[in-house]
Amino acid sequence: MNDEILEELEEKGEIILSVFLDGDSPGSGGWITIYHLNNFYYGTTDYEEYIGPVASFEEAMQWEVFDFIGIDYEVTSDHLPIEKLEAIKADIEARIAKSQMD
Predict the structure, then answer these.
(1) What does the DSSP 8-state code read for residue 24?
(2) Which pLDDT belongs to residue 25?
(3) Which residues, 6+ apart, have CB-to-CB distance to 97 below 8 Å?
(4) Which residues lie closer than 8 Å to 22 by C-beta, 6 or more apart?
(5) Second label for 102, Cα 20 to 30 Å away, from 7, 11, 20, 64?
(6) What is the C-alpha separation between 83 and 62, in angstroms, rounded?
(7) How many CB atoms lie within 10 A of CB 51?
(8) pTM higher than 0.70 for the full model?
(9) pLDDT of residue 47
(10) Long-range residue pairs from 75-82, CB within 8 A, at least 24 positions apart, any chain
(11) Do 42 and 60 contact (CB within 8 A), yes or no?
(12) What are the boundaries of each domain within the chain?
């Protein structure tokens, strides 16, 4: 993803989902964000992993970064109902468990 798209996401993109990673020591935390912009979805992380554009939120949620969260995290959104956030967290938990078994 180029700098122009990243800048447009920050300026005009709508944050649909934020995942805050809570590390035990300074510098070990981070974030994953899913944006909506111009009828597409994009994902960014603090460690420069990117996805997008993709056509749907569901497609963005299949991003493999959610499979390997190894620390405590919090899922937040100003746009999704609590039931959807709970389902997303359950899905992430299942994906983490599966990736640890592989």
Answers:
(1) S
(2) 63
(3) none
(4) 29, 71, 72, 73, 74
(5) 20
(6) 19
(7) 19
(8) yes
(9) 87
(10) 75/17, 75/18, 75/19, 76/17, 76/18, 76/19, 76/20, 77/15, 77/16, 77/17, 77/18, 78/15, 79/14, 79/15, 79/16, 80/16, 80/17
(11) yes
(12) 3-101
Token pair in block for residue 10: 């920050």
Beta strand pairing status for 14-22 and 72-76? antiparallel
Nearest to 21 by CA among 36, 31, 13, 11: 31
User: What is the pLDDT tens value at each position of the chain, 102 positions in all?
Assistant: 889 999 999 999 999 999 999 866 666 678 999 999 999 999 999 988 999 999 999 999 999 999 988 778 999 999 999 999 999 999 999 998 988 886
SS3 19: strand
* Bridge partners, residue 44, by sequence: 33, 50
**Residue 29 one-letter amino acid:** G
Residue matched to tokens 């039931």: 83
The three-class DSSP label of residue 37 is strand
Residue that has been written with the tokens 């999704």 in this structure: 80
